[in-house]
Amino acid sequence: MRRPGCHDVPTARPALPPLPLLLLVLSLQLGAPRGVGAGTGAPAELRVRVRLPDGQVTEESLQADSEADSISLELRKPDGTLISYTADFKKDVKIFRALILGELEKGQSQFQALCFVTRLYHNEIIPSEAMVKLRQKNPRAVRQAEEVRGLEELHMDIAVNFSQGGLLSPHLHNVCAEAADAIYTRQEDVRFWLEQGVDSSVFEALPKVLEQVELPRCGQVGDRGKPCACRYGLSLAWYPCMLKYCHSRDRPAPYKCGIRSCRKNYNFNFYVPQRQLCLWDEDP
Ligand SMILES: *[C@@H]1O[C@H](CO)[C@@H](O)[C@H](O)[C@H]1NC(C)=O
């Protein structure tokens, strides 16, 4: 892979949309983090306008707290769904949450919340201390990710016990409060966290969705009371996934001078005890 840098101009990257390269500037030289009470762990917030894959524009909020070593991102889809992503670097945990609006005229409840918790790898997103320092020159600009990362298909085969969730990440109680009965994770991630010393009481086995031998896809189930294998797809439309380094004659070493932005889609597959908890999953 090519090393990013300031001299890395868009013309050298024909597969990507011709966008200004340093959309956001890390003004590390200035030192002082944004926000009131900076340096005392107060979260810093950045609001950016982003173009969604379907072409619509939405506002995304990015918050970082270098003391808690966490980043959170939130965006509202045009259909009203609120998507949030929380990266907890201290616990190697990331949490996706979807608040899906119900269609009241179809007799659905006001909203449905889902939480998906998986292992965070530290190279997935820029560090929180860099995120805290991100500023944008032009807040009106509509941003589009420079890089589209591959779709990740995840099989969520373990349930997280909400009341024990704090043992996994202190963010879980806030983020997943509305989804207390629908917090999912994966066996492979659980294995890693158990090795890290997380208590096993956090995790509970779920009926096997993976084999899908007995359990049909929700799209094929007519009876709303029947269990089925559900799929939920979400997109992180824009996030700072890498730091860029620049070279200068005045400096002995390359220095951080910006970010590279990414977009990534996720498909979560999980068990639901009733078809009506997965109404968006229609047969194609
Ligand atoms: C969650 O854990 C608590 C404490 O261990 C336990 O009392 C409770 O029954 C568990 N909840 C479920 C749904 O299993």
TrEMBL record:
List the InterPro entries.
Oaf (IPR026315), Oaf_C (IPR053897), OAF_N (IPR053894)
This protein's source sits in the domain of life called Eukaryota
- Can you give the residue ranges of the Out at first C-terminal domain? 217-282
- Transmembrane region(s): none
Q: Is Signal tagged as a keyword?
A: yes
What keywords were assigned to this record?
Signal
Where in this chain does the record put each Out at first protein BRICHOS-like domain?
45-193
Pfam families on file: OAF_C (PF22873), OAF_N (PF14941)
Range of residues in the leader sequence: 1-38
Entry keyword Cell division: no
Q: Which family does it belong to?
A: Belongs to the OAF family.
Name the PANTHER family for this protein.
OUT AT FIRST (PTHR13423), OUT AT FIRST PROTEIN HOMOLOG (PTHR13423:SF2)
**Name this protein carries in UniProt:** Out at first protein homolog
What is this organism's lineage? Answer: Eukaryota, Metazoa, Chordata, Craniata, Vertebrata
